[in-house]
Amino acid sequence: MSTIEKSVEVDVPITTAYNQWTQMESYPAFMSSVDEVKQIDDTRTHWRVNVAGVDREFDSEITDQVRDQHIAWRSIGELHHNGRVAFEEVGTDATKVTLTMEWEPEGFVEKAGDLLQIDDMTIKRDLEKFKEMIEGQGFESGAWRGEVTGGTVTDSPDNSRDVE
Questions:
Q1: Each residue of 134-161: b (16+ CB within 10 Å) or e?
Q2: Residue 148: helix, strand or coil by DSSP?
Q3: N or C: which end of the chain has fewer CB within 10 A?
């Protein structure tokens, strides 16, 4: 398994940064390898990605989610991928966002990219794009304030995923 951990500090409150990450369908706006994410339900998503010219589709499930703290997920099926994004308040209007991803590189191109640390550079750029996006907007495009434990929604507030 390969592991990457990268952080970025964003000049928005922790709730704004966290809420934007709950909007998984917005990931293609700042994640260069992600073509599309479709929300299936509160804990499952379907992804279309392109890694080094190879198109892939997979489902993932949120395994643990605590509002304003972290979101963790894992892939379902053949692809072996999991990750966690954590949020730490570093000031009234500043948040440290730390993304940790683990995956099993498949094929020559992915293994070479891993060895050359291309994935590290890609994740760093993606976090910088998230910073530009959220600071440019100044607000989140939606929110889901529920909590998930062991892949099950344990606290689901009466709010929608969309902010009006």
A1: beeeeebbbbbbbbbeebeeeeeeeeeb
A2: strand
A3: C
How far is it, in rounded angstroms, from Cα 45 to Cα 55?
17
Residue type, 81: H
Residue pLDDT, tens place only, 62-87: 999 999 999 999 999 877 889 999 99
What are the tokens at 151? 């892949």
Q: Which residues contact 106 (CB under 8 A, 6 or more apart)?
A: 79
pTM: 0.86
Per the CB < 8 A criterion, the answer to whether 36 and 24 are in contact is no
Domains of the chain and CATH, by start: 2-26+62-144 (3.30.530.20)
